[in-house]
Amino acid sequence: MTLEVEAGEFVSILGPSGSGKTTLLTMIAGFETPSAGRIVIGGRDVTQLPPNRRDIGMVFQRYALFPHMTVAENIAFPLKMRRLPRNERERKVAETLELVQLDDLARRYPHQLSGGQQQRVAVARAIVFEPPVLLMDEPLGALDKKLRETMQLEIKQLQQRLGATVIYVTHDQEEALTMSDRVAVMAAGEIAQVGSPASLYRQPQTAFVADFIGRMSFAEGIYLGLHEGFHAVRLGETVVLQASSVNGTIRPGARLKLAMRPEKLCLTARGKGGRNVIPGTLEASVFTGACELHLVRAETDGRPLIQIQTSVDTKPAGLDAGARVDIVAHEDSLHVFERQGS
């Protein structure tokens, strides 16, 4: 698959450990040579060019700041390597320090800074020479959760002010969805799907993408074919559901995986759900703040554990652990994939 990134776009490369995210980034940077294909930046084929001739900015997870240099000297380093005159270096460093809100820390050394401040210095050093592309390899991985969330917004706002083109590697799905214009999901060295955060969440094209992006519950069944305009899916001996669409072409009789988002499901007492229901037993309800997460053991093949998310105010009364319940699934809330290897 060809991945094209537009000028000024923020694209995240998302995937589990070992999926090839960092390898892809290092090939773009020039630290590794691809075995096939080309890397083109601004219309120029850079596949065989060394890293120092690609003019790319890069921010690493560990920041890689020079401990013996001040903040200003760290930021000035790439300008010094490009032999810019001293007065021009000082001007650019001052502008960049102001941009990342570190102008009052210019004379400090890295060990005198917090993690968030060090991260800002690393970003400033990467953007000070105005590269056409900025590569970021899990730059927030070393920060605690609260600071990480703050820095996500800061990086996104900075990218928008600069109009910079950013390729950002992360294994954190929430981070990718929060920051990106588009996300490329990788699996086993290949790009599984590329799209906006909303399209990946709402319209996953594979079971892997459905499982990796957000919470998702799965059940296995058999595809029965079209019936009255809907796709009929049988789970176990007695449960038949209707779905609005399927992914790809599935033959009647094929084994499938049915994926369901917790927030798209409803929970009722047994027999109160009407149509398109999965019977089960409520095993637990977990309070998470703004909502409650209910864990239901479905009475279908494999007895999968299905998650249902409800607001605290709309939790059905009288449903405690051990209660026999129905999971109500609207036709539009079901994602149907053919089971691989069946």
UniProtKB/TrEMBL annotation:
Its main location: membrane. It comes from the Bacteria. Its EC number is 7.6.2.11. One of its GO terms (molecular function) is ABC-type polyamine transporter activity. It catalyses: ATP + H2O + polyamine-[polyamine-binding protein]Side 1 = ADP + phosphate + polyamineSide 2 + [polyamine-binding protein]Side 1. It is found in: Cell inner membrane. InterPro entries: AAA+_ATPase, ABC_SmlMolc_Importer, ABC_transporter-like_ATP-bd, ABC_transporter-like_CS, Mo/tungstate-bd_C_term_dom, P-loop_NTPase, PotA-like, Transp-assoc_OB_typ2. Residues 1-213 form the ABC transporter domain. One of its GO terms (cellular component) is ATP-binding cassette (ABC) transporter complex. It holds the Pfam family ABC_tran. PROSITE patterns: ABC_TRANSPORTER_1 (PS00211), ABC_TRANSPORTER_2 (PS50893). Keywords: ATP-binding, Cell membrane, Hydrolase, Membrane, Nucleotide-binding, Plasmid, Translocase, Transport. It is a peripheral membrane protein. It is an enzyme of class 7 (translocase). The complex is composed of two ATP-binding proteins (PotA), two transmembrane proteins (PotB and PotC) and a solute-binding protein (PotD). Part of the ABC transporter complex PotABCD involved in spermidine/putrescine import. Responsible for energy coupling to the transport system. Belongs to the ABC transporter superfamily. Spermidine/putrescine importer (TC 3.A.1.11.1) family. This is Spermidine/putrescine import ATP-binding protein PotA. The gene is potA.
